[in-house]
Amino acid sequence: MANSAQARKRARQSAKQRLHNMALRSEYRTAVKKVRKAVAAGDKAAAQAIFQASMRVIDSIADKKIVHKNKAARHKSRLSAAIKAMA
Predict the structure, then answer these.
(1) What CA–CA distances, in Å, run from 75 to 15, 46, 59?
(2) Which CATH number fits the domain that encloses residue 48?
(3) Per the confidence metrics, is the pTM higher than 0.85?
């Protein structure tokens, strides 16, 4: 456990920030899952619309360095390819 007042404060701040980051990471994963679900459903127009909305979430969370920018780019690329591959 932290001994100094400064270390105790940092521990409190870290715990609060961790919860915030976990919520953002969950939002990121949900956005990706929504697109995958739309692709699986087979409606290309709906998948495209959900993908556009999800891209904003993915980019925002990557900008905040909650997930690495390359991971975000990889997900966007693969989701885009999945939508383009639809009949």
Answers:
(1) 28, 18, 11
(2) 1.20.58.110
(3) yes
